[in-house]
Structures are given as C-alpha cells and as structure tokens.
C-alpha cells in the first residue's frame, strides 16, 4: 500500500538539470557581487568561499545500520489475491515491516537520476534522519519480507552511487569554476570601465554594496543554549530558548530555504510534508542529535517541527504552502494554538508556488496586523518577517513568530 508521504527514488529529476541549476546560481550570485568585492577580495579566498557556499550535499545511506520495526496498514479488499477471503469495499488491517536507514546530507538527491532513470523505482519516505520503506506481506512471511527488503536495498545501492559521484565531481570543480567566473567578471568590469572613461564625463563612485550581497561562510554545527524563566512563582525556573540559539535556528532555516530556491526544480513535485522532512533533516545535521522532530504533539495538536533540549520543548514551527492571505492568518492561529507559555520563540515557514513573490511578501507583512492576537511587528530582514502575538485567551503572554517565505515556483 502506498503511504501519502512516499516518493519514488531516482526517478523525477535528471541530476544534470539539478547541477546545471546549481551552477547557474553560482554564476548569478557572483554577477550580483559589487565590483569592489572583486577588486578588494583575494581571488582565491573569494573563490573558496563561493565554492564552500554552493557545495551540494548528497545523502550518505548507512546500510550497515538498517533497522526494522513492525507496523500495520489498512489494505482494501481489491488488493487481495483471489486466494484470500475478503469482502469487496472493505479494508483489512495487515502487518507491515518498516525498514529504517540512517542518512546524512540532502535527501532531495534521492529523487535525482544519473543517465538512466529507474524503471522500477523504490518507494521511500523520510522520518527525521532516516530513509524508510515499508514492506507489506499479507501473510507476514519472513521469506517474502526478506526478498522485498533486499530488492529495495539493492536498488538504492545501485542508483545512489552515480548520483553521489556526479555531485562530488560538481563540488570538486566549484573552486576552479568560481576562479574562472571571477576572472571573466573582472575583465567585463574593466571593459565597461574603459567604455565609461572614454565618454569624457566624470565617472561616479560606486555606492557601498548592500550587506545582502556578501558571501558569508556556511553555518557550522550549533549548540542549543537555554535561558531560564520565572514565569510561575514558587516553581523551579523552566528553560526557554536562548535568543542567540533562536537566531541560529532562523539562520539555519533561512540558509536551507535559499538552497531550496537554488534547486527549486528538485522540490517542484513535493508537498509541504515532504519539504518539512527535508528541513528537519537539515536541522538535525546542524543541532544535537535527536533535538529536531516532526509531527510532534504540543498542546492542542501536532506541530510540524519541534526542537527539544533534553526533555523540554524549546522551539515550535509550522510549515504551509502559501494559498492566500486568509489561509495565512489561519496558519498563524493554528501555530498559536499549539503553543504554551514556555514556547516563546516560534516560526511559520511558507512555501510559495506563486510566480509573483513580491505580492506574497506584501501580504505577509500587511495581513499579520489584522490578526486578532497581533501585538506588534519587529524589524524584519529579507524574506524573514518578525511579529509578536498573544496566546489565545492569555493577553500579555507574548510570543515571537518569525515568518519565513521560500519561493519554490
């Protein structure tokens, strides 16, 4: 039976297309750099920073640490062979075996194929830092389960290495490509300067480049820091998320969002749950093991992303595909409904399929103040909006909600 969150491996996207898009993103980023950055920066150092920033991650599957667990699924009668007795129109609960393979890196590349697309792709789903697949055996027969398990593992072991090799070759060539692009850009700038100088009109000095054009080094693995709150007198102070850790989380989310935008074709067929799983995997790579989880219970429902420290919930986030201002306000209400007074720092992640991103950003900024629990708007950065809301029914219990929008048309 097919799970709603399953996808086909090595089937949807040509790896050449994904790498071509990533290379184009490198070129575009370098062309947006001001001339002053190219003339003042050491050429090799700038190329190294660009190469590190645009390097791609291919998932490594730890086949030596595969685990299995028993589960169940509902099977319609129409899926049973004639040797089984089943009433048409009914479904029956049957045992399944779920195999879990630890992974690290970007699982988006599990959708890519190199040269030859798999004509019999495996169906897998993501659960945190594990790639999982489910085997249904109506009789729960060991030989049948082993056969299907081995077929999926053999499929993954066959089709992943060519994709990994292509990504590795891309990464290894990034520095040389960046150097070539830098030199070509310098020549273009010099030629343009000669044209302007020959006009006989004084050339204006360039304005200072905006900070958003700087090439920053990648974010390293972070530590979760907690503060303490005395919100309830007479009790042991409860942990709350340290402000710097909150900023680290938002930076990690923003960075991964930009990576998704650079390879938007990879995420074109994904729903919000699939994208959420990718984000959770990224958070797990950047924060202590086991701290980031998905679909966790918190107050009145299941929140999409929950970051824990020891046994305490510190950060809550909700993921939504943008579907208009009304749904946006409803998503804020849904997120606020998940929170307790301890969850003071949160985020709402919006995946925007619309072509016109500017109108969506305007709606995000202007519609939030119309929410019944809105308190104030804080300073916002590019693609990140910061608001303060009260918890429903609890005036004065302000929470920070960062809204991040990622353009995935």
What does this structure look like?
With 409 residues, this protein is an alpha+beta fold. It has 9 helices and 17 strands. A 7-stranded mixed β-sheet has the order 11-12-13-14-17-16-15, with helices on both faces. Strands 1, 3, 4, 5, 7 and 8 form a 6-stranded antiparallel β-sheet that branches. A two-stranded parallel ribbon has the order 2-6. Helix 3 (43-54) packs across helix 5 and helix 6 crosses helix 7 (272-286). 29% of the residues are buried.
Output the keywords.
409 residues; alpha+beta; 2 domains; seven-stranded mixed β-sheet; six-stranded antiparallel β-sheet; 17 strands; 37% helix; globular
Distance between the termini: 30 Å
Helix content: 25-40%
- Our count of domains comes out at 2
Order of helices and strands: EEHHHEEEEEEHHEEHHEEEHEHEEE
Low-confidence stretches: 208-238, 289-302
Strand order of the largest sheet: 11-12-13-14-17-16-15
How does the SSE layout of this entry go?
Blueprint: E1 7-8, E2 13-14, H1 15-32, H2 35-40, H3 43-54, E3 60-61, E4 67-76, E5 91-104, E6 112-113, E7 123-127, E8 130-136, H4 142-172, H5 174-197, E9 226-229, E10 238-241, H6 243-262, H7 272-286, E11 292-298, E12 301-309, E13 312-321, H8 325-338, E14 345-352, H9 357-367, E15 374-377, E16 384-391, E17 394-407
Parallel strand pairs: 2-6, 13-14, 14-17
Antiparallel strand pairs: 1-7, 3-5, 4-5, 5-8, 7-8, 9-10, 11-12, 12-13, 15-16, 16-17
Helix pairs in contact: 1-5, 3-5, 6-7
